[in-house]
Amino acid sequence: MLKTAIILGATGLTGGILLQKLMDDDRYEKIKLFSRSSVNISHPKIEEHLVDLLQLRNYAQDFIADEVFCCIGTTNAKTPDKELYHNIDYGIPVSAAQLCKTNKISTLIVISALGADPKSRVFYNRTKGEMEEAVLEFDIPKTHILQPSLIGGQRYEKRPGEYFFKQLMKVFNPLLIGSFKKYRTINPETIVSAMVWLANHKFHQKRIISDEIQEIALKK
Fold it and tell me: What is this structure's pTM?
């Protein structure tokens, strides 16, 4: 039976790669996109919903699918206002989980971040950690939260600090072995491969850190 997937964040780096992968995947007949702006792609599988993601709960009647992929995330540089930052990185994934519960969607896959911790003194890590806990409280049957390290690839917007760190990590990545392997830069294509595999196979682990994402992405 062919499936319908929802993508939140298809205009971003990882979400855009995920969209392309699902367009080419014969297991999916429809891909619903919920975002503020259009991806500007014409394809028979795509059904776009241009909405205010901060008010996602208002669109419950359209939020119907077999699987939900949440690729939402912002940065301090892009969103310096902490309240708005929290509403995006915490509010949108939690609203998605609530809609999954309401509409009986059994699969929810969310991108978080390595270092997510609700008790962290770092606002970014604390927000991600609080989001993870809130999402898991909805007890969606097949929930997977991916915690990647620094994501490689070329982003659409300029992030000078991130770009510098990515260049630095190219030198240090080979030196990160053993328990430090999880800190290696991870490619967005790797994250996407893991997300799609998880959506289509049984896997009981809820939180999945960066080096485990790498391993899952290699599965066939």
Answer: 0.88
